[in-house]
TrEMBL record:
The chain crosses the membrane at residues 26-46, 52-72, 77-96, 116-143, 155-173, 193-211, 223-240, 267-286, 307-331, 343-360, 372-393. InterPro entries: Cyt_c_assembly (IPR002541), Cyt_c_biogenesis_CcsA (IPR017562), Cyt_c_biogenesis_CcsA/CcmC (IPR045062). The gene is ccsB. Keywords: Cytochrome c-type biogenesis, Membrane, Transmembrane, Transmembrane helix. It is a multi-pass membrane protein. GO terms for molecular function: heme binding. GO terms for biological process: cytochrome complex assembly. It comes from the Bacteria. GO terms for cellular component: plasma membrane. Residues 190-397 form the Cytochrome c assembly protein domain. This is C-type cytochrome biogenesis protein CcsB.
Length: 402
Protein backbone atom coordinates (compact mmCIF):
# COMPACT_ATOMS: atom_id res chain seq x y z
CA UNK A 1 0.00 0.00 0.00
CA UNK A 2 1.41 3.38 -0.95
CA UNK A 3 2.02 5.98 1.70
CA UNK A 4 0.70 9.52 1.19
CA UNK A 5 3.49 11.98 0.52
CA UNK A 6 2.74 14.07 3.59
CA UNK A 7 3.33 11.00 5.75
CA UNK A 8 6.79 10.55 4.30
CA UNK A 9 7.93 13.98 5.47
CA UNK A 10 10.92 13.89 7.84
CA UNK A 11 11.36 10.17 7.55
CA UNK A 12 7.96 9.14 8.87
CA UNK A 13 6.46 5.82 7.83
CA UNK A 14 3.49 4.07 9.42
CA UNK A 15 4.58 1.88 12.30
CA UNK A 16 4.33 -1.83 11.70
CA UNK A 17 5.27 -5.13 13.29
CA UNK A 18 4.08 -4.08 16.75
CA UNK A 19 2.92 -6.95 18.99
CA UNK A 20 -0.82 -7.61 19.03
CA UNK A 21 -2.74 -7.84 22.32
CA UNK A 22 -2.63 -11.33 23.84
CA UNK A 23 -5.68 -13.53 24.03
CA UNK A 24 -7.18 -14.02 27.47
CA UNK A 25 -5.83 -17.24 28.97
CA UNK A 26 -6.45 -19.26 32.10
CA UNK A 27 -3.67 -17.47 33.98
CA UNK A 28 -5.26 -14.10 33.14
CA UNK A 29 -8.61 -15.27 34.51
CA UNK A 30 -7.03 -16.71 37.66
CA UNK A 31 -5.09 -13.48 38.20
CA UNK A 32 -8.24 -11.38 37.96
CA UNK A 33 -10.10 -13.73 40.31
CA UNK A 34 -7.21 -13.50 42.78
CA UNK A 35 -7.37 -9.70 42.71
CA UNK A 36 -11.14 -9.78 43.32
CA UNK A 37 -10.73 -12.28 46.17
CA UNK A 38 -8.12 -10.08 47.84
CA UNK A 39 -10.43 -7.08 47.41
CA UNK A 40 -13.24 -9.15 48.94
CA UNK A 41 -11.10 -10.02 51.95
CA UNK A 42 -10.28 -6.36 52.41
CA UNK A 43 -13.95 -5.47 52.15
CA UNK A 44 -14.97 -8.05 54.77
CA UNK A 45 -12.28 -6.86 57.17
CA UNK A 46 -12.91 -3.14 56.80
CA UNK A 47 -16.55 -3.00 55.66
CA UNK A 48 -17.60 -0.87 58.61
CA UNK A 49 -15.36 1.99 57.45
CA UNK A 50 -16.07 1.68 53.70
CA UNK A 51 -18.86 3.64 52.07
CA UNK A 52 -20.41 2.92 48.67
CA UNK A 53 -17.89 4.99 46.72
CA UNK A 54 -14.84 3.60 48.50
CA UNK A 55 -16.12 0.08 47.97
CA UNK A 56 -16.50 0.82 44.27
CA UNK A 57 -12.94 2.15 44.16
CA UNK A 58 -11.66 -0.98 45.91
CA UNK A 59 -13.24 -3.44 43.50
CA UNK A 60 -12.59 -1.17 40.52
CA UNK A 61 -8.90 -1.23 41.40
CA UNK A 62 -9.00 -5.04 41.59
CA UNK A 63 -10.55 -5.24 38.13
CA UNK A 64 -8.03 -2.69 36.85
CA UNK A 65 -5.13 -4.80 38.15
CA UNK A 66 -6.69 -7.85 36.52
CA UNK A 67 -6.89 -6.05 33.19
CA UNK A 68 -3.35 -4.71 33.58
CA UNK A 69 -2.06 -8.22 34.28
CA UNK A 70 -3.57 -9.37 30.98
CA UNK A 71 -2.28 -6.45 28.91
CA UNK A 72 1.14 -6.42 30.57
CA UNK A 73 1.97 -9.67 32.41
CA UNK A 74 5.17 -8.24 33.95
CA UNK A 75 3.02 -6.14 36.28
CA UNK A 76 1.91 -9.30 38.07
CA UNK A 77 5.44 -9.64 39.44
CA UNK A 78 5.44 -5.96 40.39
CA UNK A 79 2.11 -6.26 42.21
CA UNK A 80 3.20 -9.47 43.92
CA UNK A 81 6.52 -8.12 45.18
CA UNK A 82 5.00 -4.82 46.30
CA UNK A 83 2.18 -6.70 48.05
CA UNK A 84 4.60 -8.93 49.97
CA UNK A 85 6.87 -6.10 51.12
CA UNK A 86 4.06 -3.64 51.85
CA UNK A 87 1.97 -6.23 53.67
CA UNK A 88 4.90 -7.00 55.95
CA UNK A 89 5.46 -3.30 56.64
CA UNK A 90 1.79 -2.63 57.32
CA UNK A 91 1.56 -5.77 59.48
CA UNK A 92 4.43 -4.55 61.65
CA UNK A 93 2.81 -1.13 61.86
CA UNK A 94 -0.50 -2.74 62.83
CA UNK A 95 1.19 -4.61 65.69
CA UNK A 96 2.72 -1.33 66.80
CA UNK A 97 -0.58 0.53 66.65
CA UNK A 98 -3.06 -2.22 67.37
CA UNK A 99 -5.16 0.08 69.53
CA UNK A 100 -5.13 3.03 67.10
CA UNK A 101 -2.82 6.01 66.70
CA UNK A 102 0.43 6.06 68.65
CA UNK A 103 1.65 9.58 67.88
CA UNK A 104 4.53 10.99 65.88
CA UNK A 105 7.21 10.51 68.55
CA UNK A 106 6.44 6.83 69.14
CA UNK A 107 6.38 6.13 65.41
CA UNK A 108 9.73 7.86 64.92
CA UNK A 109 11.24 5.91 67.82
CA UNK A 110 10.05 2.60 66.32
CA UNK A 111 11.44 3.46 62.89
CA UNK A 112 14.78 4.55 64.32
CA UNK A 113 15.20 1.41 66.44
CA UNK A 114 14.09 -1.16 63.84
CA UNK A 115 16.70 -1.90 61.16
CA UNK A 116 14.35 -2.74 58.29
CA UNK A 117 12.21 0.32 58.86
CA UNK A 118 15.14 2.66 59.46
CA UNK A 119 16.85 1.73 56.20
CA UNK A 120 14.18 0.23 53.92
CA UNK A 121 10.52 0.15 54.90
CA UNK A 122 9.60 3.52 56.37
CA UNK A 123 8.10 5.88 53.82
CA UNK A 124 11.10 8.21 53.83
CA UNK A 125 13.66 5.38 53.57
CA UNK A 126 11.78 3.68 50.74
CA UNK A 127 11.47 7.03 48.95
CA UNK A 128 15.22 7.55 49.16
CA UNK A 129 15.78 4.10 47.65
CA UNK A 130 13.40 4.98 44.84
CA UNK A 131 15.27 8.22 44.20
CA UNK A 132 18.68 6.51 44.22
CA UNK A 133 17.61 3.71 41.87
CA UNK A 134 15.94 6.10 39.42
CA UNK A 135 18.99 8.38 39.45
CA UNK A 136 21.28 5.41 38.76
CA UNK A 137 19.11 4.42 35.81
CA UNK A 138 19.79 7.70 33.98
CA UNK A 139 23.55 7.27 33.28
CA UNK A 140 23.07 3.51 32.93
CA UNK A 141 20.63 3.97 30.06
CA UNK A 142 22.67 6.68 28.34
CA UNK A 143 26.00 4.83 28.60
CA UNK A 144 24.46 1.55 27.46
CA UNK A 145 22.76 3.29 24.52
CA UNK A 146 26.01 4.91 23.39
CA UNK A 147 27.90 1.63 23.82
CA UNK A 148 25.10 -0.41 22.23
CA UNK A 149 25.18 -2.65 25.30
CA UNK A 150 22.10 -4.85 25.50
CA UNK A 151 23.11 -5.98 28.97
CA UNK A 152 23.54 -2.39 30.15
CA UNK A 153 20.08 -1.49 28.87
CA UNK A 154 18.63 -4.45 30.75
CA UNK A 155 20.35 -3.21 33.90
CA UNK A 156 18.74 0.21 33.34
CA UNK A 157 15.32 -1.42 33.09
CA UNK A 158 15.98 -3.47 36.23
CA UNK A 159 16.89 -0.29 38.12
CA UNK A 160 13.64 1.35 37.05
CA UNK A 161 11.58 -1.70 38.03
CA UNK A 162 13.33 -1.81 41.41
CA UNK A 163 12.83 1.91 41.96
CA UNK A 164 9.14 1.52 41.15
CA UNK A 165 8.81 -1.22 43.75
CA UNK A 166 10.34 1.04 46.40
CA UNK A 167 8.12 3.92 45.30
CA UNK A 168 5.01 1.82 45.91
CA UNK A 169 6.38 0.60 49.24
CA UNK A 170 6.90 4.23 50.25
CA UNK A 171 3.34 5.00 49.15
CA UNK A 172 1.71 2.26 51.24
CA UNK A 173 3.97 2.82 54.26
CA UNK A 174 3.17 6.54 54.27
CA UNK A 175 -0.54 5.74 54.01
CA UNK A 176 -0.38 3.60 57.16
CA UNK A 177 1.94 6.01 58.96
CA UNK A 178 -0.56 8.84 58.54
CA UNK A 179 -3.10 6.88 60.60
CA UNK A 180 -0.53 5.90 63.22
CA UNK A 181 0.42 9.52 63.83
CA UNK A 182 -3.18 10.61 64.26
CA UNK A 183 -6.40 8.98 63.08
CA UNK A 184 -7.58 12.37 61.85
CA UNK A 185 -4.41 12.67 59.74
CA UNK A 186 -5.04 9.42 57.91
CA UNK A 187 -5.26 9.77 54.12
CA UNK A 188 -4.13 8.27 50.84
CA UNK A 189 -0.78 9.97 50.09
CA UNK A 190 -1.77 12.07 47.07
CA UNK A 191 -2.67 15.24 48.95
CA UNK A 192 0.35 17.57 48.59
CA UNK A 193 3.25 18.31 46.25
CA UNK A 194 5.65 15.99 48.06
CA UNK A 195 3.32 13.03 47.79
CA UNK A 196 2.24 13.64 44.20
CA UNK A 197 5.83 14.04 43.02
CA UNK A 198 6.39 10.47 44.17
CA UNK A 199 3.23 9.43 42.32
CA UNK A 200 4.42 11.27 39.21
CA UNK A 201 7.82 9.58 39.29
CA UNK A 202 6.43 6.06 39.69
CA UNK A 203 3.59 6.47 37.18
CA UNK A 204 5.89 7.99 34.56
CA UNK A 205 8.51 5.28 35.07
CA UNK A 206 5.95 2.48 34.74
CA UNK A 207 4.33 4.04 31.69
CA UNK A 208 7.77 4.28 30.09
CA UNK A 209 8.48 0.64 30.92
CA UNK A 210 5.26 -0.31 29.17
CA UNK A 211 6.31 1.50 25.99
CA UNK A 212 9.76 -0.02 26.33
CA UNK A 213 8.19 -3.48 26.26
CA UNK A 214 5.58 -2.54 23.66
CA UNK A 215 8.18 -1.37 21.15
CA UNK A 216 10.94 -3.75 22.28
CA UNK A 217 13.44 -0.90 22.57
CA UNK A 218 15.20 0.44 25.67
CA UNK A 219 17.27 3.23 24.13
CA UNK A 220 14.84 6.00 25.12
CA UNK A 221 15.19 5.20 28.81
CA UNK A 222 17.82 7.84 29.51
CA UNK A 223 15.64 10.60 28.06
CA UNK A 224 12.52 9.64 30.00
CA UNK A 225 14.36 8.98 33.25
CA UNK A 226 16.02 12.39 32.90
CA UNK A 227 12.70 14.20 33.35
CA UNK A 228 11.91 11.92 36.28
CA UNK A 229 15.32 12.77 37.72
CA UNK A 230 14.58 16.49 37.45
CA UNK A 231 11.29 15.95 39.29
CA UNK A 232 13.07 13.97 42.00
CA UNK A 233 15.74 16.65 42.38
CA UNK A 234 12.89 19.04 43.19
CA UNK A 235 11.47 16.44 45.58
CA UNK A 236 14.80 16.25 47.46
CA UNK A 237 14.99 20.03 47.74
CA UNK A 238 11.38 20.13 48.87
CA UNK A 239 12.05 17.49 51.50
CA UNK A 240 15.30 18.76 52.99
CA UNK A 241 14.71 22.50 52.66
CA UNK A 242 10.98 22.64 53.46
CA UNK A 243 10.58 19.39 55.42
CA UNK A 244 7.72 18.51 53.09
CA UNK A 245 7.96 14.81 54.00
CA UNK A 246 6.43 15.50 57.42
CA UNK A 247 2.89 14.11 57.48
CA UNK A 248 0.31 16.79 58.22
CA UNK A 249 -3.50 16.73 58.53
CA UNK A 250 -5.58 17.03 55.41
CA UNK A 251 -7.09 20.30 54.32
CA UNK A 252 -10.87 19.82 54.76
CA UNK A 253 -11.55 20.19 51.01
CA UNK A 254 -9.23 17.23 50.33
CA UNK A 255 -10.94 14.92 52.79
CA UNK A 256 -12.96 13.24 50.07
CA UNK A 257 -13.05 9.92 48.25
CA UNK A 258 -12.81 11.92 44.99
CA UNK A 259 -9.14 12.48 45.73
CA UNK A 260 -8.47 8.74 45.41
CA UNK A 261 -9.46 8.72 41.73
CA UNK A 262 -9.02 12.32 40.54
CA UNK A 263 -5.33 12.66 41.40
CA UNK A 264 -4.11 9.28 40.00
CA UNK A 265 -6.00 9.90 36.75
CA UNK A 266 -4.36 13.32 36.49
CA UNK A 267 -0.90 11.86 36.92
CA UNK A 268 -1.35 9.24 34.25
CA UNK A 269 -1.90 12.25 32.00
CA UNK A 270 1.07 14.17 33.35
CA UNK A 271 3.31 11.12 33.05
CA UNK A 272 2.43 10.37 29.44
CA UNK A 273 2.76 14.02 28.45
CA UNK A 274 6.26 14.02 29.99
CA UNK A 275 7.17 10.85 28.08
CA UNK A 276 5.95 12.36 24.80
CA UNK A 277 8.07 15.48 25.38
CA UNK A 278 11.25 13.55 26.15
CA UNK A 279 10.72 11.26 23.16
CA UNK A 280 10.22 14.46 21.16
CA UNK A 281 13.67 15.64 22.27
CA UNK A 282 15.19 12.32 21.17
CA UNK A 283 13.31 12.64 17.86
CA UNK A 284 14.73 16.11 17.21
CA UNK A 285 18.27 15.00 18.06
CA UNK A 286 18.08 12.11 15.66
CA UNK A 287 16.41 14.22 12.96
CA UNK A 288 19.14 16.86 13.31
CA UNK A 289 21.80 14.15 12.92
CA UNK A 290 20.38 13.00 9.62
CA UNK A 291 17.49 10.72 10.51
CA UNK A 292 17.39 6.94 10.19
CA UNK A 293 20.62 5.23 9.25
CA UNK A 294 22.64 2.03 9.64
CA UNK A 295 24.42 3.21 12.79
CA UNK A 296 21.35 4.30 14.72
CA UNK A 297 21.37 4.12 18.50
CA UNK A 298 17.83 5.46 18.85
CA UNK A 299 14.59 3.96 17.50
CA UNK A 300 13.43 4.86 14.01
CA UNK A 301 11.79 8.25 13.58
CA UNK A 302 8.50 6.53 12.74
CA UNK A 303 8.64 4.59 16.01
CA UNK A 304 9.33 7.68 18.10
CA UNK A 305 6.56 9.52 16.29
CA UNK A 306 4.19 6.68 17.12
CA UNK A 307 5.24 6.64 20.79
CA UNK A 308 4.51 10.35 21.05
CA UNK A 309 1.09 9.86 19.52
CA UNK A 310 0.17 6.85 21.68
CA UNK A 311 1.43 8.55 24.85
CA UNK A 312 -0.46 11.78 24.22
CA UNK A 313 -3.63 9.94 23.22
CA UNK A 314 -3.54 7.89 26.44
CA UNK A 315 -2.68 10.91 28.56
CA UNK A 316 -5.40 13.01 26.95
CA UNK A 317 -8.02 10.35 27.74
CA UNK A 318 -6.98 10.15 31.39
CA UNK A 319 -6.61 13.91 31.72
CA UNK A 320 -10.12 14.35 30.34
CA UNK A 321 -11.48 11.87 32.87
CA UNK A 322 -9.55 13.59 35.67
CA UNK A 323 -10.91 17.00 34.65
CA UNK A 324 -14.48 15.71 34.70
CA UNK A 325 -13.91 14.07 38.08
CA UNK A 326 -12.38 17.31 39.35
CA UNK A 327 -15.47 19.24 38.27
CA UNK A 328 -17.70 16.80 40.12
CA UNK A 329 -15.48 17.07 43.19
CA UNK A 330 -15.61 20.88 42.97
CA UNK A 331 -19.41 20.77 42.88
CA UNK A 332 -19.43 18.76 46.08
CA UNK A 333 -16.73 20.80 47.86
CA UNK A 334 -17.45 24.35 46.66
CA UNK A 335 -20.95 24.20 45.25
CA UNK A 336 -20.10 24.65 41.56
CA UNK A 337 -18.60 22.57 38.77
CA UNK A 338 -16.35 25.35 37.47
CA UNK A 339 -15.19 28.61 39.00
CA UNK A 340 -12.32 29.71 36.71
CA UNK A 341 -9.88 29.16 39.54
CA UNK A 342 -6.27 29.46 38.22
CA UNK A 343 -5.74 25.70 38.57
CA UNK A 344 -8.92 24.98 36.65
CA UNK A 345 -8.11 27.54 33.98
CA UNK A 346 -4.65 26.11 33.38
CA UNK A 347 -6.05 22.58 33.36
CA UNK A 348 -8.31 23.73 30.54
CA UNK A 349 -5.32 25.23 28.71
CA UNK A 350 -3.47 21.90 29.00
CA UNK A 351 -6.53 20.05 27.71
CA UNK A 352 -6.97 22.41 24.74
CA UNK A 353 -3.26 22.17 23.88
CA UNK A 354 -3.29 18.39 23.59
CA UNK A 355 -6.71 18.35 21.97
CA UNK A 356 -5.25 20.59 19.26
CA UNK A 357 -2.16 18.34 18.97
CA UNK A 358 -4.30 15.27 18.42
CA UNK A 359 -6.62 17.13 16.06
CA UNK A 360 -3.77 18.27 13.82
CA UNK A 361 -2.27 14.80 13.71
CA UNK A 362 -5.50 12.93 13.05
CA UNK A 363 -7.17 15.33 10.62
CA UNK A 364 -4.23 17.10 8.96
CA UNK A 365 -1.65 14.34 9.12
CA UNK A 366 0.94 16.52 10.90
CA UNK A 367 4.04 14.59 11.95
CA UNK A 368 7.75 15.10 12.26
CA UNK A 369 9.72 17.87 14.00
CA UNK A 370 6.78 20.28 14.32
CA UNK A 371 4.88 17.77 16.45
CA UNK A 372 8.00 16.96 18.46
CA UNK A 373 8.48 20.65 19.23
CA UNK A 374 4.81 20.89 20.13
CA UNK A 375 5.18 17.94 22.55
CA UNK A 376 8.08 19.70 24.25
CA UNK A 377 6.15 22.96 24.47
CA UNK A 378 3.23 21.03 25.92
CA UNK A 379 5.43 19.84 28.76
CA UNK A 380 6.18 23.44 29.74
CA UNK A 381 2.47 24.26 29.69
CA UNK A 382 1.69 21.18 31.76
CA UNK A 383 4.52 21.95 34.21
CA UNK A 384 3.16 25.42 34.83
CA UNK A 385 -0.34 24.04 35.32
CA UNK A 386 0.99 21.47 37.78
CA UNK A 387 3.64 23.44 39.65
CA UNK A 388 3.75 27.04 38.46
CA UNK A 389 0.18 27.78 39.44
CA UNK A 390 0.97 26.65 42.98
CA UNK A 391 4.06 28.86 43.09
CA UNK A 392 2.82 32.06 41.50
CA UNK A 393 -0.99 32.12 41.61
CA UNK A 394 -3.55 31.77 44.36
CA UNK A 395 -7.06 30.46 44.38
CA UNK A 396 -9.24 27.65 45.64
CA UNK A 397 -6.31 25.25 45.18
CA UNK A 398 -3.90 27.30 47.31
CA UNK A 399 -3.54 24.40 49.72
CA UNK A 400 -0.99 22.97 47.26
CA UNK A 401 1.37 25.95 47.29
CA UNK A 402 5.07 25.66 48.06
Amino acid sequence: MSVPNEQMVNGYQPTSNLPSPRRVGLVDVLWTVAMLVIAGIGYVQYSESLDFYTTGTLFGTALGLGFLGWVWPATRWLVGIVAIISTYAVWQYNILGADGAIGRAALAEFQESTFLFKYFLSSTSATMWMVALYFLAIPTYFIATLARSTYGLKVGSALVWSGSVMGFVAFFSRWRESYLINLDYGHIPVSNLYEVFIVFAVFTALLYLYYEKRYNNRSLGGFVMLIIGIALAFLLWYQFDREAHVIEPLVPALNSWWMKIHVPANFVGYGTFAIAAMVGIAYLIKHKMGGDGPNDRLPKLSVMDDIQYKAIALGFAFFTIATILGAMWAAEAWGGYWSWDPKETWALIVWLNYAAWLHMRLTKGWRGPVMAWWSIGGLFITSFAFLGVNMFLSGLHSYGEL
